[in-house]
Design brief:
- Helix content is 31%, strand content 31%.
- The protein is of the alpha+beta class.
- It has one domain: Nuclear Transport Factor 2, Chain: A (Roll).
- A six-stranded mixed beta sheet has the order 2-1-6-5-4-3.
- A hairpin with a 5-residue loop joins strand 4 and strand 5.
- The longest helix has 18 residues.
- The protein is globular and about 55 Å long.
C-alpha cells in the first residue's frame, strides 16, 4: 500500500512538473532567450526588404500593445504601426549601411509563455552627408507566446546619452541617440 502511494505521488509530481507553466527547465530558459534575441535580430536585419513591416512583425496582430518611448505611451496597434512607418520614413530610410549591434542582453523567463528581455542595442550607419552616426539605447520588452508565436505586448525604449553607450562603447562609437523607433 505504501509503495503504491509513493508511486502515485512520484507520478503526480512528475506530471505536474511537466505541465506546470511556471516550471521552466534551464534548457527551455536558454531556448526561449535565444528565440527572443533571434526574433529581434532578424527583424532588425536591414539587408532584408520592407523593414517597417518586419519591425511591426514583433508585435501581436490584434489586442492592446503598450509601448513607452520618448516620454509618450502608445496602446493601439494601428498607432504603433503608423509610428514605426513614420520612423522609417523620417530616419530609417536615410541610414546608409546600417547594421544592428546587439549589446548586453538580460532575459527573465516568467513562464513557458511569458518572458522579459532587456537589451542594449546600437545601429551604426552613415548619414546621407557621409558622417558616421549611431542610433542606440536600451530596450525592455515583455513577450507573450500565443499560438506558438512570441510577440511583444509591452515595451519601453530609453535613448543612450550622447556621451556613452554602455555595453557597446568598444564596438560602436555613439554620436547621437534618437530612439530606435519613436512611437
Amino acid at each position: 500500500m505504501l509503495a503504491a502511494r509513493v508511486v502515485a505521488v512520484v507520478t503526480l509530481s512528475a506530471t505536474t512538473a511537466c505541465t506546470d507553466p511556471l516550471r521552466v527547465s534551464p534548457n527551455d530558459r536558454r531556448a526561449i532567450a535565444d528565440s527572443l534575441s533571434a526574433l529581434v535580430t532578424n527583424a532588425y536585419d536591414f539587408s532584408k526588404p520592407d523593414p517597417a513591416a518586419r519591425l511591426l512583425s514583433l508585435y501581436p496582430d490584434s489586442g492592446r500593445i503598450i509601448s513607452a518611448v520618448a516620454g509618450r505611451v502608445t496602446t493601439a496597434r494601428d498607432t504603433l504601426a503608423s509610428e514605426i512607418a513614420g520612423f522609417w520614413q523620417r530616419v530609417g530610410r536615410n541610414m546608409q549601411n546600417p547594421r544592428f549591434v546587439l549589446g548586453s542582453t538580460y532575459v527573465d523567463v516568467i513562464t513557458r509563455d511569458a518572458a522579459v528581455l532587456t537589451l542594449v542595442y546600437g545601429i551604426p550607419h552613415t548619414t546621407p552627408q557621409g558622417a558616421p552616426h549611431t542610433v542606440s539605447g536600451a530596450w525592455t520588452m515583455l513577450w507573450r507566446r500565443e499560438n506558438g508565436r512570441w510577440r511583444i505586448v509591452q515595451e519601453h525604449l530609453s535613448d543612450t546619452p550622447e556621451s556613452t553607450a554602455p555595453g557597446l562603447a568598444s564596438e560602436v562609437p555613439v554620436t547621437s541617440t534618437p530612439p530606435l523607433h519613436q512611437h
